[in-house]
Amino acid sequence: MTSHLVFPKIGAMNNPDQEMVLRAVEDARRIIGEYIEPGARDATKTVERLLAVLDKNDLVHALDRINRRTVLRLVQGSLTVSCDGITKMTR
After folding, report:
1. 41 φ, ψ to 5°?
2. pLDDT of residue 68
3. pLDDT single digits (tens) 17-48
4. Within 13 Å, how many C-alpha atoms sit on residue 44's CB side?
5. How far apart are CA 58 and CA 14, in angstroms?
6. How many angstroms separate the Cα of 33 from the Cα of each of 4, 5, 12, 18?
7. Residue 76 pLDDT exceeds 50
8. Which residues of 50-69 are buried (b: 16+ CB within 10 A; e: fewer)?
9. Which residue among 13, 33, 34, 56 has its CA within the 20 to 30 Å range from the CA of 85?
10. Alpha helix locations (H) across the chain?
């Protein structure tokens, strides 16, 4: 079954992690778009396809790096998080 939905491609990014996440989201949207098209559906196959796209170690690590960069950028030079999870302000 071919989806008739069109998802616009976003131009190239400078960050390989962001590109990987964007490709995974585009692929997942395409898979879901194909599933919601009229006709026969196989939920198990769709979930397996989504897992194949979204449950990759490389993607999980890319998301971790993106989240880490975001947190570090927000708190850099103003907050310190200790090993016990307590956040302290530094001046």
Report:
1. -130, 145
2. 84
3. 999 999 999 999 999 999 999 999 999 999 99
4. 0
5. 18
6. 8, 6, 23, 22
7. yes
8. beebeeeeebeebeeeeeee
9. 56
10. 16-36, 43-54, 57-75
